[in-house]
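[User] Once you have settled down, look closely at the record that follows, and write a paragraph about the fold.
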Amino acid sequence: MLLSGTALGFPSESKTAGVGVVPAATGAPSAPSPSPDTEGAAQTPEEQRNSAAVREAFQRWEGGGSFYDILTDDAVWTITGSSPIAGTYTSRQQFLDEAIEPLSERLSVFVKPTVRGLWVDGDTVFAQWDGHGVAKDGQPYDNTYSWILHMKDGRVTSAVAFFESSVVTDLWERVPGSN
């Protein structure tokens, strides 16, 4: 089921066939259309709970908090691609220590999300968002992310993250970490 930015409490600037669509950045692909079997279908209580939990986590992050509080302690987070942080992390703490902290060390302004859209199907929430931060060398850090979040009881148990690996690799090569 497609959940537009508007349906989940995020701003939406355009409407297509009655479905709120968060506009894509110039040159970026637009959000997918709802599948025919879910278009117009009501959300189940599980889907409502999962979408609300993810929406609230993004809102916390936008307000300066952490999205990652929504992860279970044993959450498995996989980062695809070939960046220095690509791989699979088998706990929330490992993910924070080995991926998020090294990224944070290279930024003077940490990444702020702008959600393009959220989609939910049972225990899975799909999130597409743009991130903007500033590296310690003063250069912008901009990337577009797609996350597949598997949920249980309103918490993320596993995730797969897609983004432009070259943007992260460039940051790693330009800005040294503290280690």
